[in-house]
TrEMBL record:
It comes from Quadrisphaera granulorum. Residues 77-340 form the DUF7847 domain. The chain crosses the membrane at residues 85-103, 136-163, 184-207, 227-257, 277-299, 319-352. This is Glycerophosphoryl diester phosphodiesterase family protein. Signal peptide: none annotated. Residues 19-31 have a biased composition (Pro residues). Keywords: Membrane, Transmembrane, Transmembrane helix. Residues 1-52 are annotated as: Disordered.
Length: 371
C-alpha cells in the first residue's frame, strides 16, 4: 500500500489480504446492575461506573459519535493544527476570491455601467452584453476549475490532519503537503466526479421540462405541460442530487487514507454510505445549513459597508464595481478561510464514524494509539 496508508488502522478491511480487525475480547461478567427509575441503571455507590469510557487519545472518543461530538471534533481538529489548515485555506480562498473578483471586474464592469445608466440606449446595452459574455464565461470556467483543484488539495490536507488528530498526534505542515501531493491528481479526479455526476444528473432531469416550456412559449402554445414537467424534474433533481452527493461524500477520505484509486475510492464511499444513509444526509445538510447561516451573518456587515460606500461613490462611477467587489471579497475570504476546513473536517469525521460503526475501526485505532 502507498505511503498514504502508512498509519495503522486506515486500510480497508480485506485490502491486500488484510483481515478485518478481530472483535475486542469479552469483558468479565459483572454483577447484576441495580435498576432505578425509568429503567436506567442506578449509580454505583461511591460514584463509580459500570462501564469503562471509550478511549480518547485525540479529538474524539473512539466509539460511534453523536452530532455534537462530530462538530466538536471538527473544531478541535482545526484548533489542534491551525497553521497549516487555516494557512492553506487562506491561500486557497484568497486565490479563488481574487480570480473571481478580477474576472467580474474585467468582464462585467462595462455591462453593469450600461445597465446602471438610464440614458444608455438599448443597442449599447446589447453590445456591452455581447462583448462581455465570452470573457465572462471564460473567466467563470477558469474560476470553477481553479476552485475544483484548490478545494481538492485543501480537502486532502484536512483529511490527513484529522486522521492523525484522532490519535492525538499533530502532523507538521510540510508532512501534510507531502502526503497530499502524492495523491493530488487522484484527489482532483474524485472531486471532479463528486462535482459533475450530481450536476449532470440534475441537468438531465430538469432539461426536458425547460426545453418543452421554451418551445411552448416560442410557439405560443399552452405552457402548462412544460411547467408541470419542469416542476417534477426539479423535484426529482433535488432528490437525486442529494442522494448522489451523500453516496459520493466519503470518496476523498477513502482515497487519501486508504490509498485507493479514483474508482476504488468511489466504490468505498458507495459501500460505506449504504448503511446509515439518512444519518449521513441529515448531518451533512444540517452542517451545510448552519455554516451557511453563520457565513451570511458574518458577511452581512461587509455587504452593508459595500452598499454604503457604493452609494457614496455613485453607481455610475467607474470605481463603483472595483470598490464593492474588493469589500465583499475581503469578507468572503475571511469567512471561507474558516468555513472550508471545518466543513472538510466534519466530512473526514463522518468517514471515521461510519467505519467505526460498520468495521470496528475504533478497536484498531485504539491499538494504534496505545502503541
Amino acid at each position: 500500500m502507498g505511503r498514504m496508508s502508512e498509519s495503522p488502522g486506515w486500510t480497508a478491511p480485506g485490502a491486500g489480504g488484510q483481515q478485518p480487525p478481530p472483535p475486542p475480547p469479552p469483558l468479565p461478567s459483572a454483577p447484576q446492575q441495580p435498576v432505578s427509575g425509568w429503567g436506567q441503571p442506578a449509580p454505583v455507590p461511591g460514584g463509580g461506573s459500570w462501564a469503562a469510557p471509550a478511549p480518547r487519545p485525540g479529538i474524539i472518543p473512539l466509539r460511534p459519535l453523536s452530532l455534537g461530538e462530530l462538530w466538536d471534533g471538527a473544531f478541535r481538529a482545526v484548533r489542534s493544527n491551525p497553521k497549516p489548515l487555516l494557512g492553506g485555506s487562506a491561500a486557497v480562498v484568497v486565490t479563488i476570491v481574487l480570480v473571481q473578483s478580477v474576472v467580474q471586474g474585467l468582464t462585467a464592469g462595462e455591462l453593469f455601467s450600461s445597465l446602471a445608466d438610464p440614458t444608455a440606449p438599448t443597442d449599447q446595452v446589447l453590445d456591452s452584453f455581447g462583448s462581455s459574455l465570452p470573457g465572462f464565461l471564460g473567466g467563470l470556467l477558469l474560476s470553477v476549475v481553479l476552485s475544483l483543484v484548490a478545494t481538492a488539495a485543501l480537502s486532502g490536507l484536512v483529511t490527513v490532519s484529522v486522521s492523525t488528530a484522532v490519535l492525538g498526534r499533530r502532523t507538521p505542515g510540510g508532512e501534510l503537503w507531502r502526503r497530499v501531493r502524492e495523491r493530488f491528481w487522484s484527489l482532483v479526479g474524485v472531486s471532479l466526479v463528486f462535482s459533475l455526476v450530481p450536476g449532470l444528473a440534475v441537468a438531465a432531469l430538469v432539461a426536458p421540462g425547460l426545453v418543452l416550456l421554451t418551445v411552448s412559449l416560442i410557439n405560443g402554445d399552452g405552457a402548462t405541460v412544460g411547467v408541470l414537467l419542469t416542476l417534477l424534474g426539479s423535484l426529482g433533481a433535488v432528490v437525486l442530487g442529494l442522494w448522489l452527493t451523500v453516496r459520493l461524500l466519503l470518496a476523498p477520505c477513502a482515497l487519501v487514507l486508504e490509498g485507493q484509486g479514483v474508482g476504488g475510492a468511489i466504490k468505498r464511499s458507495w459501500a460505506l454510505s449504504r448503511r446509515g444513509f439518512w444519518r449521513l444526509l441529515g448531518i451533512w445538510l444540517l452542517t451545510a445549513v448552519c455554516i451557511g447561516v453563520v457565513a451570511s451573518i458574518v458577511l452581512a456587515p461587509f455587504n452593508l459597508i459595500a452598499t454604503v460606500v457604493g452609494a457614496v461613490v455613485g453607481i455610475g462611477s467607474p470605481l463603483y464595481f472595483p470598490i464593492t467587489l474588493a469589500i465583499t471579497g475581503v469578507g468572503s475570504a475571511l469567512v471561507y478561510t474558516v468555513v472550508y476546513p471545518l466543513q472538510s473536517a466534519v466530512t473526514a469525521l463522518l468517514y471515521v464514524d461510519q467505519r467505526m460503526r460498520q468495521e470496528g475501526l475504533d478497536v484498531e485505532l485504539a491499538r494504534s494509539a496505545a502503541q
